[in-house]
Amino acid sequence: MALKWRMQCIHMEQIVLMSSKEISIPFDSFYTLDIEGFLLIKLKIFSPVHSFILDTEDKCWKSVFNPSQLQQLKLASNKLFCEYGEACKNMFSVFSKVIKDAKSRKLASIASSSSTSSAAATTAATDPSSSELTLTIKDEEDLIDELWERLAEIGLINPRKHYDLYWLQKTIDHFLNLYRFKVLEWVKNHGSEMDFINRVWTILDQVFDDIRVETRRDNGSVSATFIDNEDRAVAGMAAIAAKVSSIRPDLVLFQNGVEYGVAECGKGDDEEVGKKEIVETSLDCPKIMKSMFLHAALKCDNDEGVTRALQIVGFCHFDLRMKVLVMDNANGYVCRIRSTPQYEISTIPSQMSSGLLPILKLTLRSKLTIQSSIKVVNDYFTPGEDNDPDFQASMDQNKTRLVLPRLQKSPNKKPKKSV
Length: 419
What we know:
Number of domains: 3
Structural class: alpha+beta
CATH topology of the largest domain: tt1808, chain A
Order of helices and strands: HHEHHHHHHHEHEEHHEEEEHH
Oligomer: single chain
Shape: elongated
CATH class of the largest domain: Alpha Beta
CATH architecture of the largest domain: Alpha-Beta Complex
């Protein structure tokens, strides 16, 4: 079976390019990339490519595809984030306007101040991001109060009728308190990984409550454990292999035996270039997402319709920064990962529009993406007229199956401790 997948991997149009006939690459370049050092036993350089994962932001593809080809891979099948409701959009607009108005008032005061030079006023007017427009501590405190007052004007929201709006109101109120009492500052400067999780990121977990998704923290992944141990069996040739311990992600999104999302969190050590952040966002998270994808597809008997529609979401939280990964299988046998831009929550309230608000928008859109995947799985299990049980071989005759390549396990480089 391993040899079969290696041979299929050489057929670029079928595997790597997801059946796109518009893109072609030199045979030798991909052969070198995929065979030498990747699928041989030594595995000197381990990568998601081993597991048939094509991360469109992975730098290794820049030497294989040109920019227009990469863009085609990103846009294949045109799967977009789901849109949240108008009520949430209106709330975001209100808060953005309050922040913009506060800056406009600051600009007006600069222009009318007799102590400010005309040159400084001109600079502030032409460049809103200039230092002349920096709000004072008093201005920032007044802005927090004004935002809270606008939030209070909305009144109580019934979570049973408008849960997303309810969550958004509660979450913004939570972050206003983090700004008001300088919590974000001390967490950013002196906080541990657990401080970032407890004080900042867990509030986002609650967005999934109304769709009955369990947000399991510090818990093993059912999918990763299953995929890593699926070869354990009574084969008659050797004893049952020892159970393999799987990676424990920081968050697993679980419902009815299926996992739809994962998160890796941490305290960044070197502003996006630390080893822990690189490994967890570029290797660990994609592999866990692939395990979840394979497990969900297997739960649905590897039905091709389910596999093509399924999407798994990954959250990457490091320090106050967040980006979202989305895995799908647009065509062929490769699982594609697309990434959003990375946003950072500023410790300055007047900069919420460029950090916190986009993160809340991404969280809502990710939730709706997961909700659509849940619907795909649930619809498969909805009884139909042709749902009569039979032998597996007989049932397979009437269905189109798509079995994706397995994960390649990371080589264990840790020396075993002597007993």
